[in-house]
Amino acid sequence: MHPKILILKGVAFVLRYIFKRVLEMIPTLLIVSIIIFYFIHLIPGDPVRLVVGPDATSEEVSMIREEMGLNDPIFIQYMSYMQGILQGDLGKSLKTGLPVMEMFENRFKNSIYLTLFSIIWAFIIGIIIGTFSAVFKNKLPDNIGMLTAVSGISVPGFWLGLILIQFFSVQLGWLPTGGADSWKHFILPSIALGAGIMAMIARFTRSSLLETLGSDFIRTARAKGLREMIVIPKHALRNSMVSVVTITGLQFGFLLGGSVVVETVFSFPGMGRLLIDSIAFRDYPVIQALLLLFSIQFIVVNLIVDILYSFLNPKIRTISS
Amino acid sequence: MEDIILKVEQLQTDFQKDNQRIRILNGVSFHISKGEILGLVGESGCGKSLTSLSIMRLFKGTSGEISGGNIFFRDEDITKVTENQMRKIRGKQIAMIFQEPMTSLNPVMKIGEQLMEPIRIHLGYNNKRAKQHAVQMLTKVGIPRSNEIMNEFPHQLSGGMRQRVMIAIAMSCNPDVLIADEPTTALDVTIQAQILDLMRKLQKEENMSMLLITHDLGVVAEMCDRVVVMYAGRVVEEASVHDLFQSPLHPYTRGLIGSVPKIGQKKDRLESIAGRVPDPSNMPKGCKFAPRCSDATAECHEKEPSMLEVEKNRYCSCWLYDKGRSLISG
């Protein structure tokens, strides 16, 4: 077959695959939405009280409760909520009265940037450290690399965040302590957020690479007269990437939610801090929308990982076609 | 001898195990002449494969190390050259085929790329020329639709096809010596015959020297000019194929040849050699084969025999053929 036809077939296949996977997301999201909706209503505390304040009379309270539809059976509430979502309406915040969509706009962008920056540096540095550790197994670079990795895993993000603020913002005054106004505001939070993942990627890269370096095709590559500078990145690393990409993808999903703590430490205007604030205020519509969004992100990340797989491992590509 | 291309002399190779150096190869010597196929036989663990890895110096990632002896390629001792020089020899002058075609190719790289790598490095061809050469090589090793195979991945090919690709890679830079480490062991019998035919044809065409490592005496009889028999990291016998099968000298060789079933022979049980291969970390004193040898005398257990030229071009290390000793005892 002509190579161009092959490529076209490949693209068509990937598109069909994505479409199928998106369809499969629907039942998952439906179940997730029901669970979220139901559980949020189990949270103790009265949102109406929070809206009207402590001085309101019980009449006012019951009036607003009726107005917000909180007296309806939970099933009816769910149905009307879903109706809204399908029309692109996530409801209004109980706290601010603003549409939830509007509140998300900038914060969503901030959070996505923060997670992306974190994962990108963690991925690059993690792979470099892991590769050096594997190549110089049990020697000095390995020891330094794995010491870094163990520290990265053991140190909690919020603590690292506080230390970074203390050192770079308070003492040196180089970087701002919080906010998200310029790229400088992203540096410290993404270090705090990415450290643990960097460590995990480094360790996975090391063990996966060590396994690959023992395989027959690496011996073949060396027997061909290739230099190590080619054998390691071209032949070994690519084979090790499948497992590394998997855990990176999983971590990425966790990062989207895990940024809650780091965002709070850096008073970062993102989704994580919004979640904390909304829970404190029992802002049902915002919490629901956030949790739903986190679920969608998680599923989408998984989809991306699966697609990446097939690029890294040609075997998966041909089996599925 | 005339035109010796590769000469291994008293080669010793050590491995590290539990902080202890263990000598796996102890004084392996043989030579290969131009255009000759030399068989290296012996049972598993006798050091056949390690001999080939020592010649290529493929020890990276293991604790293996050449601790003595010389390996002369033409006139150069390649145990002394730097890693950089060694890389120019690997794949260019001495190439190698391995036992497991299923795992010896990189699973995530197209066949074409894997084949073009040595061509670009050693022959200095640009991409276009390297590609032409690669397609030619695939055709040469009998791969149909070689143009398409260039863009396929190893898992899309059968074991026999993969071994053909390995042969194409090894032959791509026209090496002087081809080391084939059990090239057909992992293949089924009909494919084995095809691969052996192919290797012999290519060897004749290029007048290339070949070191064929195998435990299959049938393959030896069919392919080789001369044979070196190894036991416990040592060479015990060296002879031409004809002599070796006609009248094996060393008791171990006799046992090996005796254990091959013959057509027309009526026997319930095949011959076997009693006992096991000795553990390299706990070698017996004297002749390493003595504990399993039916002809062993007290002296065999005490002193290790040395290599003797028993007849012209026939070498054997066994006290049975040591005239000095037979004079004393007789």
UniProtKB/TrEMBL annotation, chain B:
Q: Where does this polypeptide localize?
A: Cell membrane
Q: Where are the transmembrane segments?
A: none
> Which top-level group of life is the source organism from?
Bacteria
Q: How does it sit in the membrane?
A: Peripheral membrane protein
What CDD domains does the record tag this protein with?
A: ABC_NikE_OppD_transporters
Molecular function GO labels: ATP binding
Recorded hits in PROSITE patterns, A to Z, give:
ABC_TRANSPORTER_1, ABC_TRANSPORTER_2
Q: Name one Pfam family in it.
A: oligo_HPY
Question: Which keywords does this Swiss-Prot/TrEMBL entry list?
Answer: ATP-binding, Cell membrane, Membrane, Nucleotide-binding, Transport
InterPro entries xref list: AAA+_ATPase, ABC_Ni/Peptide_Import, ABC_transporter-like_ATP-bd, ABC_transporter-like_CS, Oligopep_ABC_C, P-loop_NTPase
Domain ABC transporter intervals: 6-257
Family assignment from sequence similarity? Belongs to the ABC transporter superfamily.
Protein name as catalogued: Peptide/nickel transport system ATP-binding protein
Q: Which organism is it from?
A: Evansella vedderi
